[in-house]
């Protein structure tokens, strides 16, 4: 798991390029709430919009998520904990008046860019 990229993945870079081309500026790998060790992939600090680009495997995509057969119990617990942490992060950010946008890695980058742009413009 240490070989897994935490930032600068291909889906994240595609999203960043699209947002930059539309004139939107953001922070990368940003610690949104200082008391948490969780970081948003992109953060629009002024309008308070946090964007997370979730991998289908690690965050249990309903369309593409899977569970390994080997050591299944450990993986189920691990992936469940990831999803639980995602929901907790969303709730904490919303309580602090942040808008949370979650993008799946398989999403069309143009669609994801449009969703993020709408969220940012609505808060600007």
The CATH H-level homologous superfamily:
VSR Endonuclease
Secondary-structure content class: alpha+beta
Query: What is the 3D shape?
Result: globular
As a whole number of angstroms, the C-alpha radius of gyration is 15 Å
The helicity comes to: 40-55%
Termini separation: 38 Å
The sequence of SSEs as H and E is HEEEHEH
| Number of distinct beta strands | 4
The description of the largest β-sheet is: 4 strands, mixed
Determine and state the CATH class: Alpha Beta
Strand sequence of the main sheet, in spatial order?
1-2-3-4
Low-confidence stretches: none
- Here the CATH topology equals Endonuclease, Chain A
Question: How much β-strand is present in the residues?
Answer: 15-25%
What does this molecule look like?
The protein is an alpha+beta fold. The protein has one domain: 3-Layer(aba) Sandwich (Endonuclease, Chain A). It contains 3 helices and 4 strands. The chain has a 4-stranded mixed β-sheet with strand order 1-2-3-4, with helices on both faces. The longest helix is centred in the C-terminal third of the chain and has 24 residues, at 72-95. The radius of gyration is 15 Å and the shape is globular. The termini are far apart.
